[in-house]
What we know:
The structure is a homodimer.
Chain A lengths: L21 H17 L6 H8 L3 H7 L3 H24 L5 H13 L2 H4 L7 H11 L9 H6 L4 H17 L6 H21 L14 H14 L1
Helix pairs in contact in A: 1-2, 1-7, 2-3, 4-5, 4-7, 4-9, 5-9, 5-11, 9-10, 10-11
The structure holds a DNA duplex.
Amino acid sequence: MVANFSFHINPHLFKKNPEESAIGREIVSNSIDLINNLGIENFTFKKLATKIQHTEATIYRYFENKQMLLLYIVSWYWHYLDFLIDYKIQNLAEPKQKIQEIISILSQNLSETKLTSYYNMAAIFEIVIREGNKVYLHTEVKEINKIQLYKPYKDLCEKISLLFQTYNSSYKFSHSLASTLVETSHLHIFFTENLPRLTDVNEENKNSYTHHFLSDLIFKSLN
Amino acid sequence: MVANFSFHINPHLFKKNPEESAIGREIVSNSIDLINNLGIENFTFKKLATKIQHTEATIYRYFENKQMLLLYIVSWYWHYLDFLIDYKIQNLAEPKQKIQEIISILSQNLSETKLTSYYNMAAIFEIVIREGNKVYLHTEVKEINKIQLYKPYKDLCEKISLLFQTYNSSYKFSHSLASTLVETSHLHIFFTENLPRLTDVNEENKNSYTHHFLSDLIFKSLN
DNA sequence: TTAATTGTGATAGTAAAGCTATTAATGTAA
DNA sequence: TTACATTAATAGCTTTACTATCACAATTAA
């Protein structure tokens, strides 16, 4: 399926809406590739400017700094996930099936769950896994939270949390379990690839490992 | 209890061992306060140099860059945790009690579990919670892993994992559960403080919340 | 005792990163 | 046609990140 996603993005994320001009779209789309290749620490607006044949100052007209651009990309992912979850579970009858589907999406059995878009989705996933929690793990978290920039993440957790409640209304930690599911899925995809001794992955179970672990974790908590 | 911890720190972490000179100890001890106050992104060797009345170049004689200094601090914490766990569980008979004790330590019911040291322990904890996973969430993770700089973290997970196995030998994800326990404890301490809607914390359960959630998560997984 | 060696921190840089004030060009409205 | 507003480019500045070299003191060697 090919769709043109357009989510309501919090205007505090940018100085000028990058969706509304060709240069803006070039900035976002090329930054996704560049951040993925270099990592956010080595990524600079200068390098991006060179890549898209414009000047640094032009990029500063759209984004306050590279951290805001990263948050823009990660926000886009949160909205995308929210949308994808709705899309995937709408025809499933049982809460259990819906939860299983969410776990599948987060474990990235990608071929089946991916929706394509204008952006390089594989690069966005890698960015979110490696850089995602840097958008809140810093000293300005409270100020950024005040202007609602983490709302899409909270909404996503709220959605998953409600499903958990539907499945087992006596469970006391549904929000925590939802955020833990999202965070643990990202970390585990990173660990299985880079630090496998922090997991129990091996050659045989490689493809399904993260999915199995997350299913075990979530359903044992909920039952 | 007051103790003078001295762990075997991997020599790749520094250019010159900071434990072996007064200036080296000043560098580490003051960097802990400064990184805690500024965050690793705003922390610079120049600011640290000003604080300790020496030059930037002096600091560069000890540490390659601020990321290595952060990894030094986080490594110190991993060793400390490993030591503290041994110290706290040695007199406990049952695996269940031992696991409960580890969860207590990680939930930071601090007053009881803290061992004091030359360094500002409260600052180290805050650094680990906010900056800890930045030491591996980057593009050079594989090179750093090759020179064994994550070994103390892996050893810590191995220790916790073995306890899980003793408690329930049929559980298949003991390493994953160990790393998830450590990571989730850090994230949840951060969330309850800064992004409470990602959890189910409230005014009444505030103090014990993280501990309850982690206990529920771990023992349901293991039973 | 003097000369050579070694280990230390200080000085003084450079290149890149991060950001901004000003100017120039283009499009729109009166 | 002129005034105004929007947008990008130019050129800069400050800070960060890092390094080459120097100076000094302690140690050792002749």
